[in-house]
Amino acid sequence: MTSVKSLTASVHARLADALSAALPEAASADPLLRRSDRADYQANGILALAKKAKANPRELATQVVEHVVTGDLIADVEVSGPGFLNVTVSDKAITENLAARAADGSGRLGVPQREDAGTTVIDYAQPNVAKEMHVGHLRSAVIGDAVRRMLDFTGERTIGRHHIGDWGTQFGMLIQYLIEHPHELDHEADPSTDVEAAGEEAMSNLNRLYKASRAVFDSDEDFKTRARQRVVALQSGDEETLALWQRFVDESKIYFYSVFAKLDMPVADDEIVGESAYNPMMAETARMLEESGVAVRSEGALVVFFDEIRGKDDKPVPLIVQKADGGFGYAASDLSAIRDRVFGLKADTLLYVVDARQALHFRMVFETARRAGWLSDAVKAVHLEFGTVLGKDGKPFKTREGETVRLEDLLDEASERAATVVREKAEAGGIELTEEEIAERGAQVGIGAVKYADLSTSANRDYKFDLDQMVSLTGDTSVYLQYAYARARSILRKAGEARPVAHPELELHAAERALGLHLDAFADLVAEAAAEYAPHKLTAYLYQLASHLTSFYADCPVLKADTPEQTENRLFLCDLTSRTLRQGMTLLGIQTPERL
Ligand code: ARG
């Protein structure tokens, strides 16, 4: 496993050495190094240390400076303000370090694999059977996929779980209706239909069935009774009933797959493990909780109480493990899933990418599992909550008629608008693109835009779904990053004979230094964003990277540089930047077309 130490880490080590030489009791102290506008870095740690040692901070800072080894790595260090250190690194160190990163044969751009990595089971992209997916499901999928890619890249072993809603009393009504109208889900097997068309057909069948059965259920008391009996048959494992239930699940999966395909997101069939999969464990889960005293009987139901969780009249709100009629619900399935993931899949971390509105549910479920000993200091559970998707008007996202927006329509619209942007930009640049190319790039740009907008707001915040803003060429959008990538690639193509080669002996322009130092931060940033499950930190980093690249082009001619060496060195910067952009976007699940 290769990994290239970042310049920041090397400077940090140098300063820590100087600090302990100047003040032996500060041997393991952190110099608190940050990137700075004044110099390359500023270290602020001396102030607190001086205070502790009852020393004058400026004097201590001066002593530290005397112990800093300068030359190859650190070009200059000086005391500033009340006792800060301003550090400037050498041009040579910047270029050499980037060259080592570029040469890292693993293609990891210096990002290390964690040696203490464990297993994370990540619960994300969990739509419900026989129901249309909504923007909340989109968010879980997009954030979950990005977090998973980041974790994988840092060496964590990840297992996905799509905890789809495939169980519940609503199936009694649906199955009973299908029994009484047997041809409603029939299909002509037509091998020519594509995933997308099949998905749309499946969902429209399910919608029609849902509406029709609902209408009968609401108007016909006898049907209602038969539907309730059907629920009992389903729960007791009646074969005919189960077979029909399975048809609803299969039909829904056709639809789910089509939406995920449109989202350009891989979903593995063996990771679709819905609520129903835990049915065989539920009774045991309940028994374990009751026997250990974690759950108690209350009015016939099996429940868990929490001191801190109270409702309106200050009455404790319990978690219901088993209803008085013996039925199990959402909580029992999640509690059983925890047992499966901890003891079966041997997870060290359980991560749930779920709407913030389910926060109370997870708090109660996690606390119950902790009391039962299934979760511990060694196995933690995290609810990565995300906020609500809002319309432009700041209200929950709906159509003008107040209906939920169909995801396929939304994604199609994003792709169409992006296609318009691609077309206009190509025409303005005199680039000829075929209709096919425009459509393909439109999808890459449009889907990327939706994902990026979702990922660039920190997950716990609500965010406004605004397509116009998402596909804008300027500002913090994926399109801006995709163009930055395509532009770098185009320069590399136009270079002809000239190759990207690092020349550490060359002096760097300020814009080259800024770009180089930002590239240096990639590895540490990826590790941080992954550890914090924070894709928005990666989007912010990439946006800055693209901005540095833009300033670099403005100030530093690449193909018309002063010397051939300078051209090579600048091509080298273009190459490493494009690879970093591409890797970063890949971690977000966003494509980077070679030409735009
Ligand atoms: N299907 C649920 C919904 O649509 C989300 C499931 C979340 N995961 C879980 N383990 N409860 O709201």
TrEMBL record:
Keywords from the UniProt entry: Aminoacyl-tRNA synthetase, ATP-binding, Cytoplasm, Ligase, Nucleotide-binding, Protein biosynthesis
Gene transcribed to yield this protein: argS
Subunit structure of this chain's protein: Monomer.
Subcellular location: Cytoplasm
SMART domains: Arg_tRNA_synt_N, DALR_1
Ribosomal protein is among the record's keywords: no
Domain DALR anticodon binding stretches: 481-596
Listed Pfam families: Arg_tRNA_synt_N, DALR_1, tRNA-synt_1d
Name of this protein: Arginine--tRNA ligase
EC identifiers of the protein: 6.1.1.19
Membrane spanning stretches: none
